[in-house]
Task: structure prediction
Amino acid sequence: MRFSWSSRLAALSVLLALAVGAGRAEAQTVRGTVSDSASGKPLEGALVTVIGTSKRTVSSGNGQFLLENLTAGKVTLRVSMIGYAPQVRALALLPGDEATADFKLDVKAVELEELVSVGYGTVTRENLATAVSSVSSEDISGQANASSDAALQGRAPGVQVVQNAGNPGNAVTVKVRGTASFSASSQPLYVVDGVPVVSEDLSQMSFGGQGIRAITGLSPDDIASIDVLKDAASASIYGSRGSSGVVLSTTKRGTAGRSQVSFNAYYGTQAPSKTVDLLTGTEYMTYMNEAAENDGYGADYFGVVGVDDTVNTNWQDAIYRRAPISGAELAVSGGTDQVRYRVAGTWFDQQGIALSSGYRRIGTRANLDFVASPRLNFSVGLAVSGERNQRIQNDDNLEGVTTNAIADEPLYPVRQPNGAFTGTSDGISYPNPVAIAHFNSAFARTTTVIGNVEGRYAFTPSLSFTGRVGVNLYTLREQQYRSPLVEGTEAAGLGGIAEQAYSTGNKYVFDGFFSWNRLVSGNDLSVTAGSSLELNRSDRNYLRGENLSDPTLKQVNNANTVTSFGGTFAEDNLVSFFGRANYSIADKYLLGVTFRRDEASVFGPGNRAGFFPGASLAWVASREGFLANSRTISLFKIRTSVGRTGNQALSAYPWQGTWCSANYGDEAGYYPCKIANTKLGWEKTTQVNLGADLELWNGRVTFTGDWYTKNTSDLLLDRPLAGNSGYTTYIDNIGELRNRGVELGLTTVIAQPARADGLRWVTTLNVSFNRNTVTALYDDQPFSTGYYEMNRVEVGHPLGAFHGYKFTGVDPATGDALYKDVDGDGSLTSADRTFIGDPWPDYTGGFTSTWSWKRFDLTTFFQFSKGNDVFNAMRVFSDDGGYNYDNKFADVLDRWQQPGDNTDEPRASFDGLSDARRVSSRWLEDGSYLRLQDLTLGYQLPDQLAASAGFASARLYVRAQNLWTTTKYSGYNPEVNSNGSASGQTAQIATDFYAYPLARTWTFGIQAGW
Result:
């Protein structure tokens, strides 16, 4: 696209920021230390702020801090740190003076003083007027998770994290306050150290819910904190990309002081947390014989029980295994007042619990902070990671490993007496899953680079300018081979199949913004204003070949025939102007306004610009005179906000008419495949939030609550067209969706120690309620999607609500399945399909309990979800009354067998005459669950013992993840979603079609420092 004057100005502002020279002037300084008042131990990482200015620093490893270039006269310092009560002290500085100020902080239960990232700036939680959830590094460190977004599960109110499948390195689905789109992505925007990064599923090959997302390249060990912007007033600073929330990740940085080395490592083992209860060989033969005999095929149609069922293979035992998992981080940090650094290397290696699956990531990150002068400083960050996914066909695939471990009859062995794999020629109905894992292969190799250079120049103590350049590069190479040696597969009939895909992309971000902080009439005013330019490029190529010359040759270039190929190039740009102003009146009334104007090339020429404002207001009632001296209420704050955000997470060129390639006989050609819509514009989400924060007894109890309503309009959907136009649909802004919810958080300090090594017991509970409703469609025309069109999109109902036949029971006289005749016409037709279930939970949440005493610590973390249904699509074949040859779920043992039997399991019928195979509410199951997700016991070694091992300090721990789950769901995982998190599949949710199971993990680890 051609850049407008606005894009040129945005780029120029950034270049000017980075070109600003360093100025030097005589300045006043303050040195000091921060320590624990009880133990006298120096405190590292305490935030020291000069109230009314942008000046701030953090204490080093020995508790020391330095503030330079302060204005002569009276200055007020504020020191705060998580877990401690803040302190405020006034100093009088003479010109050229160097003052000393030491602070001794008292332990405080609640962490309201933590610094929260809000986009292009930070604010203390105590002064926050918007809805932001935070997760600290302590919450995610040491967890055996491939990605940081998976570690958010159950820990942040309003943030729903779904593990679509359990395969190593799998992408998760993250929803902030429900879903805000049908066709565009409903994943949040991810920002790392101020730089928006690529986070969508990059894979070109179909593996169902087993996605590959670039965000997994960010190691959880590198994360210092994660802040999730949930309401529109906070997310509107990111405008057109804020409708689904914003996840801000801040990485760890060095502090001034002597060099410190930290080493964290763990090793453990995994096993399937659950297996599906299937029929044994004898039970299977008995059932299938009964199905055949019920339909007149005679007795022993499938063989004689006791004679032909001598083999009893548990195919799940054949493909699942105990598998190792390990992770490690080695980091070096330190520096001086002028230069601070942190360099870290990370390793994560997870072998899959299913044969031939695994994931490995190796990464490094270097962060550098450099004070060039009292006015100018720089921050640099660079991270490089390499990932290797070993994948297996599974989710959403009838030739998958797990698929056929459930489907194959137990009457056949894994191998024949001669050692060859049992195949369809030996009588087995479906491909041998062990042979699939042995002969087939699929690898994906990803390289990701995330970097940023930031310069900050202080014109005055109150006014500064920040220029930032960020880059995110990625390459993904995928290779899949399906061997002709696996009988019964597509590849066996085609002489083998080889596929190859290559995806590469880059994102460049240029930011420039002013920050102004000043006391105005005794009140604190802070203003941020600037511009941003973002350039995105992607390149994708794909090739498929068949009939390979030899089973040992697995590359596409070994294929005799190339049957499919493709290549695409796409680019889009975003030009933005943004601003925010926060005004604190007497520290009691907090006012904030935010805006962003975005101009995106993905929309039509007349609709590229969007304006996204937000406003917030908070009243800190506890600072009023009638509560100021209360011994009970430490903080009471009421918040409200309103704002608008957008969504432009679409494929490239959605508004343009496109052409596709096609051959006419032997002649190459192309044809118009999508009609243009130059009026295509933004999806818009308007959100209102009401919230309150309460702290009692100096932090012994804290409560936060939020209510919100979130209305999305101009949703992008396919609009029907008359067929004589040459097209049947075109994309248009025609839908509306509403989310409403409540979020509650409660933290209690049950036991507070009098001494540093005394008993401390802290609990944290968060619960989130969300209801979504489709409020408008084109001419209110509903449509169905998902497996067997079970997910429905219709006005007045939840998005993707289950829609089908209503199962009413089994006729005790005949054993036939009964279904509701909705229209009352006496026959069962498609008109009798109705709403039969809700895929969205009533509420989700998590509960954490942490104990520490002397050198011991114990943490338990429970995660829960209540009220949603799951479509167990495996039962289409494994609970069909015997129509298919698949092995059956053990539920069929309770089937109807004779008149008078009262059961919900229809009679067995080989020809399907019992109507058990009708897709209906019979296959919807309660997806509620309570899971002990994390149990960790740690021990801090005595200093002398740690020193004898060569450490300055060391902590040993044992951890169990996914240890225990209670649920009524009969499949592997009640939070499953075999459709994954790709754009356009938002309504296709809560469906299990042979998803990879979750692992139960035990690890032993050490955290050490020098």
About this structure: The first strand starts at residue 28 and ends at 36.
